[in-house]
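Before the break, one more example. Copy the sequence into your notebook; we will annotate it together after we see the structure.
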Amino acid sequence: MRFGDKLIMLRRERGYSQEQLANMLDVSRQSVSKWEAGQSTPEINKLIMLADIFSLNVDSLIREEIELPDIENRQEKLESINKNVIYRKHGYTIGANGFGLYEYKSKTEIFGIPLVHIKMGFGAQVAKGIIAIGNVSVGLVSIGGISLGGICIGGLGLGLLVLAGLALGGIAIGGAAIGIVAMGGMAIGVYSLGGVAVASEVAIGGAAFGTTAIGRTPRGDNILQASDVVRYGQIKDFILKYHPHIWRPLLKVMSFFGELAGM
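Here is what the structure looks like once it is written out:
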C-alpha cells in the first residue's frame, strides 16, 4: 500500500481532518492533501512526527511492501491512547494525567523567524519567535518560566527590560534583580532600589550600599538616612547634588519610589 493511502486510512481512523493533522505537524492543509495524493512526500522530521502520532514506526508508513498492522491491533492501540486523552485539537493535547502540550506558530515570519510562537506543556518546551511564549521562551518579547530576549517576563529573565522572579538585564525588576537599573527585594546594579540595594552609583533601600546611599541603614560616601528626610523632594535634591548628570527620568523614578517607601 502506498504512503498516501496509508495516511488517509490512519487519519480517518483517528477522526482527524486534513486541517487538524496539518496543525499538529505545523504545515499547511495543502501539504497534507499533496501527501495523500502522492504528489509529494513529507520531510523526514514530519515522517517521524506522523509515526509518533499514529503509534507506528517510519518503515510501516513509507515502505509499500510493509502493510499496516491489522485494524484490530490499531484500534486497540487507539483505544489505549484515547483513554489517556481527554482533549485534542489543533495540536493541543490534554491527557488524563493532566499533562498537556500546546504549540502555535504563526505563518507570518520576519527574517525567517515566526512573528508569534507559543509552546507550552510538560517538560522543556522552547518557544522561539518575535513574540515567544513558552516554558522556555526566546524572542524580542519573551514570556515564560525562563525568558530570554528584549522584553522579558518570567520566573527567570535575561534581557534589556526584564520583569521576573530572578531578573538580569539592562532594566531589571524582580524578587532578585541585577542590572544597570535594578529594582527588587534584592537589587544589584549601577542604580538600585530595593529592600536591600547595592549600587556603584545610587542605592535606595532599607539597607542601601553605594557611592550615594539613601535608606534606613545606608552605607557609602554620601549618606542620607530615612529618618533625616523631612520634606518632599529631598531625595531628588540629594541625588542631584552628587550626581548632577543623572538621566532625569531615572531620577524621577528613584525619587518617587524612595519617597513612596518613606525613605
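The first strand starts at residue 85 and ends at 89. Strands lie at 85-89, 92-95, 100-105, 109-110, 113-114, 116-121, 126-209, 212-219, 222-225. Try to locate both features in your own notes.
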